[in-house]
Amino acid sequence: MRPTVYAIDGIIPVVHPTAFVHPTAVLIGDVIVGARCYIGPLASLRGDFGAIRIADGANVQDCCVMHAFPGQDAVIEEDGHIGHGAILHGCVIGKNALVGMNSVVMDGAVVGENSIVAAQSFVKAGAILPARSLIAGTPAKVMRDLKDEEITWKSAGTAEYQRLAARSLTTMQACAPLSEPEANRGTVDAGTVAPLHVTKAG
């Protein structure tokens, strides 16, 4: 299954062979997707005003939007993790950082490495947010330092998305639906990472 890719001004997106880009995702222009990355269904990565760089091991999940501003690239560093429906505009997401679902990170903002931006947060333009921080709110601010167990949990979730890239490359295929479930229906190989509130509860 080939991703939906467009050149503009003669610049063609680049996708590493070990990355998975869903066919409904759209990559335009100056986009580079690194090794072991996962780009989910309906993600839009528009490198038509500037560069989009997604480093090795990062993921950009369903319905996310990435766009660069002139002179302000959109960058996800190694092992970055971008939750469903997030918007990244001309910003930098640091190594092993997580941006939660439906969050918006604006032009010139920098999210420090090993940080977590909570779901539905708004990171304003030019905000510089430190490493190992829990960031939340509208506008977003640093709530507290992250605990080691929270960073470990985040890294485990990102590893599952790296595994999902490999699973998708080897087993995902377009098919017709069944009219009813099989008698011996199996389950998908979803791994063992639980939501953070479950992990904290022990």
UniProtKB/TrEMBL annotation:
SUPFAM superfamilies: Trimeric LpxA-like enzymes
Alphabetized CDD domains for the sequence: LbH_paaY_like
Domain of life: Bacteria
Protein name, entry field: Phenylacetic acid degradation protein PaaY
